[in-house]
Every structure is written in C-alpha cells, then in structure tokens.
Fold:
Amino acid sequence: MPASMFEGEDMDSSIAEATFKIIKTEFVKGMYFDSLEQLKLELDDYVHWFNHIRIHGTLGYLSSVEYKKLHLKKAV
Structure:
C-alpha cells in the first residue's frame, strides 16, 4: 500500500507533524495541566500568541497574521 493515497496528502502530513513538534517543544514540554479545561485554555492562548505575536524569521520578522495581511494587500 502506498504511503499516500491522495495527491497532496504527504504535504498535509508534514505540515501537521511540524506543527505538533512545535507544540510539543514550545508549549507542552515541562508543563503540567490540572484539567483538560486548563489545557484547552492555555493551548488557545499559545495559538493566539503563535499567530499574532511571535515573529518568524522566515516571514521577514513579522507575525503570521501580519505577514498574511501584508501580502493580501499586495495581491489586491
């Protein structure tokens, strides 16, 4: 059976794997959560920080949201 059944599936898997690696190394490592609710709240905060505040060198030292807004303006 092939590793990928659908075109583009390998790329989807690599993006998901990279995302989970970042979450494990930057968010979960060394953390303890008292409840599933606490995990959900803190993960939501982390995702907001990651997308809106954290700067990315590969995106010209902009956050993901800033980069997307900048390039959407250029495309219009």
Q: What stands out?
A: Residues 1-31 form one domain.
